[in-house]
Design brief:
Layout (H helix, E strand, L loop, with lengths): L7 H5 L9 H4 L8 E2 L1 H7 L1 H9 L9 E2 L7 H4 L2 H4 L4 E7 L8 E5 L5 H5 L8 H9 L14 E2 L5 E2 L11 H6 L27 H4 L9 H5 L33 H24 L3 E3 L7 E3 L19 H15 L3 H24 L20 H4 L9 H7 L3 H8 L13 H4 L14 E2 L5 E2 L3 E2 L5 E2 L3 H5 L8 H7 L22 H6 L26 H4 L9 H4 L32 H22 L4 E3 L7 E3 L23 H15 L3 H4 L1 H14 L16
Antiparallel strand pairs: 1-2, 3-4, 5-6, 7-8, 9-10, 11-12, 13-14
Helix pairs in contact: 3-4, 12-13, 12-14, 13-14, 16-17, 24-25, 24-27, 25-27
């Protein structure tokens, strides 16, 4: 006999032991009074135990009601002791074919016990499968005609409910697709908070279910209660999602703002397109009702909504998910915001009346976990070692500790601990110098008044923003090749994205292709603001316009720097010395692209550039401005490079992939573009190459 049950008091006062709650008492008055098999898994202790013990299959039989609550043995038994994986409602067809299988999260810890139930009961595939019953070419804005199911019953399209508290589905985002994810859109994966506080049991006491507020308060100032959490706004979530102009309000308020816009859109669409006004009641099944008197309330006698169109179904599903996970703002706010934004956008494709101009769907690059720099490796399941440093949240710390990287699982954007040393919190990692692809070692640091070297925090930025190639890379790839002979073995060498550090240090690191016999400007020290953090907010990444305004009066728009210039040399020879230096550079780049195309055509294979598609340069044999395709319809990458063409194309790509090059080191950019034009025989008449070294 156990005299003292551990954590008994915490459990006894928790929602899991509230026998009067609807979650446990719902079936007590039914006839017969029993919990159905499809509900027993989460609403009875016996059903949960059977579900886990049998490998997460169906519960075999209904369980008599009242069935009691969640007991100690529910979660503490032989099967749950080794539970490390959970199956979710989302299904997919395996590559080898066969029947659809459930998405399964593996390698979990104690939180697996929680997510068996707190995952919702529907998903993207649930909604799509339901719609598929009504035919392949559904009109998104028409109520589909009823169909006959396999039992001979007539079935109409009805509301699909995610069910209550689907926290696990919210937390893991696109990995389990609990929300309705629109085709062609990408979504955030699991919300990575900080180590140890990113799971159910990391944030909640598993017996009382209360939030571990003391843990939150360690980093979030002013947090003393659960309600205070609604005011939290992390540095990785600084976008104005709801478009109200306030980016200081808590992320919960942003979420609520986007919810409000979506619900208004649902109501407008239901009335004007679906043909019947709609109202939502979160406490009463089936949640959506026909608002016959249009008073905004589900009154007695008003029936469940029936005018479901496919478009309305998807939006209503996502709105319900946002309501039924009251902790969504903490579980994965950005994933939920993306779902609601896309639902609103989809409704607006038909309505055209919702003003979304000020709303934002995602954060700047470092925290945009839904974007290609972080989602590229989802299918493979691992970010390869050569990409980890800059495309995985733990890549920088791993590199700084070991001097190299190993393959790691994809992450959902960067975390605080990507740049802030957890052992010396909140200090950022100290990087004294950075070695570039060409072998040069440079630093933004300097010597202080006492003669001591002080590393600048902008070095941390350059660990990634340096490009992945250099003059040396290109020369190695082209060794022993005839400069003017097309060679199918030559592959395009790509500088990669946002090589701002390489531009800033110019000829000192040779990030662009530097032609033999030419001199190039080195580090840009002519501008008083010449380090990453001088000009960019380190979290939002936005330009510090207030810093620009100290010299450039009236700076108020992020596009304003494009209008700035520091001298009156007419580099492009158009007679305009008042246009921004950006325009001078653009003219050089335009001339270079024309020279590249003329050169490639002269060598027998016309070329086309597409900045948004790898490998960027394509064959355009018929010169129709579109890439030629092969038998499978895939665009044909350019395959007739000469060394001369490649060096010029490399530099053109460099210019394209550093959109801030005009301010990072404009003279360096003008120099390598000018030399590239000349290399391919382009026209430089009227152009002026900046002096080197810079005066």
């Amino acid at each position: 006999m156990v005299a003292d049950v551990p954590f008994e008091e915490e459990w006894a006062n928790s929602p899991h032991n509230d026998a009067e709650a609807e979650a446990f008492a719902h079936w007590n008055e039914d006839d017969p009074a029993e919990v159905p098999t499809n509900c027993a898994k989460c609403h009875t202790s016996a059903g949960y135990q059977e579900y886990v013990a049998t490998g997460q299959g169906e519960v075999s039989a209904a369980i008599p009601a009242p069935a009691g609550t969640i007991q100690c043995v529910t979660c503490h038994n032989e099967a749950t002791a080794t539970l490390t994986s959970v199956k979710f409602p989302q299904t997919y067809v395996p590559e080898e074919g066969g029947d659809p299988v459930n998405v399964e999260l593996t390698g979990l810890g104690p939180e697996a016990r929680c997510m068996v139930c707190h995952q919702g009961r529907a998903s993207t595939s649930t909604v799509n499968d339901s719609l598929a019953r009504f035919g392949e070419d559904l009109d998104p804005d028409a109520v589909p005609a009823p169909v006959t199911d396999s039992s001979g019953n007539e079935v109409s399209l009805g509301f699909i409910n995610i069910h209550y508290f689907p926290a696990g589905a919210t937390l893991y985002g696109t990995e389990v697709k609990g929300g309705y994810q629109y085709e062609g859109k990408t979504y955030d994966g699991k919300f990575r908070h900080v180590e140890g506080i990113e799971t159910c049991v990391g944030c909640h006491d598993q017996h009382s279910l209360e939030i571990r507020i003391e843990k939150c308060a360690e980093c979030h100032e002013g947090v003393a209660s659960v309600e205070d959490l609604r005011n939290v706004r992390m540095q990785g979530s600084l976008a104005d999602y709801d478009g109200d102009g306030d980016v200081t309000e808590g992320i919960a308020a942003e979420l609520a703002g986007v919810q409000e816009v979506l619900y208004a859109g649902i109501q407008e669409y239901a009335k004007s397109v679906a043909g019947a006004p709609i109202v939502y009641n979160p406490t009463t099944y089936p949640y959506y009702f026909t608002d016959t008197n249009e008073n905004g309330t589900a009154d007695e006698g008003e029936e469940g909504y029936v005018n479901w169109t496919p478009r309305l179904e998807k939006a209503a599903y996502n709105y319900q998910m946002s309501v039924k996970d009251p902790g969504a703002f903490a579980h994965n706010a950005k994933y939920m915001i993306q779902l609601m934004y896309d639902s609103t956008e989809d409704l607006n494709a038909e309505l055209g009346t919702i003003d979304m101009a000020a709303m934002q769907r995602q954060d700047p690059g470092h925290f945009a976990g839904n974007t290609e720099p972080f989602r590229h490796w989802d299918e493979e399941g691992m970010v390869e070692a050569g990409c980890v440093k800059c495309h995985q949240a733990e890549g920088v710390p791993q590199f700084l500790e070991n001097g190299t990287n190993i393959a790691m699982e994809p992450s959902n954007g960067f975390m605080c601990t990507t740049c802030h040393n957890s052992a010396e919190w909140p200090a950022r990692y100290v990087v004294e110098s950075v070695t570039f692809p060409g072998g040069a070692e440079v630093s933004f640091g300097g010597v202080d008044a006492d003669g001591n070297f002080v590393a600048d925090e902008s070095n941390l930025c350059m660990l990634c923003h340096q490009g992945r190639s250099s003059t040396a890379s290109v020369n190695r790839a082209l060794a022993d090749k005839d400069p003017e002979t097309p060679d199918s073995s030559i592959r395009f060498t790509n500088i990669h994205y946002f090589a701002a550090g390489a531009t800033l240090f110019g000829g000192d690191v040779e990030g662009a292709y530097q032609y033999e016999g030419k001199e190039y400007v080195g580090q840009n020290v002519t501008h008083p603001l010449n380090k990453c953090k001088d000009c960019h907010d380190v979290h939002a990444l936005q330009i510090k316009l207030e810093a620009c305004a100290t010299c450039h009066s009236g700076a108020s728009d992020p596009a304003d720097p494009k209008t700035y210039r520091m001298d009156t040399t007419d580099y492009d020879g158009d007679g305009d010395v008042t246009e921004g230096i950006s325009a001078e550079i653009d003219a050089f780049a335009e001339q270079l692209y024309a020279g590249i195309q003329a050169y490639a055509k002269d060598k027998g294979t016309p070329i086309l550039y597409n900045a948004a598609a790898y490998p960027y340069f394509f064959v355009d044999a018929d010169e129709n401005g579109e890439a030629d395709v092969n038998d499978t319809g895939a665009a044909i990458g350019y395959n007739a490079w000469t060394p001369t063409l490649l060096t010029a194309a490399y530099n053109y790509q460099y210019y394209q992939k550093d959109p801030g090059a005009f301010t990072h080191n404009p003279k360096y950019v003008l120099q390598f573009l000018f030399d590239s034009i000349g290399a391919v025989g382009g026209d430089t008449a009227g152009f002026t190459r900046p002096a080197a070294p810079a005066e």
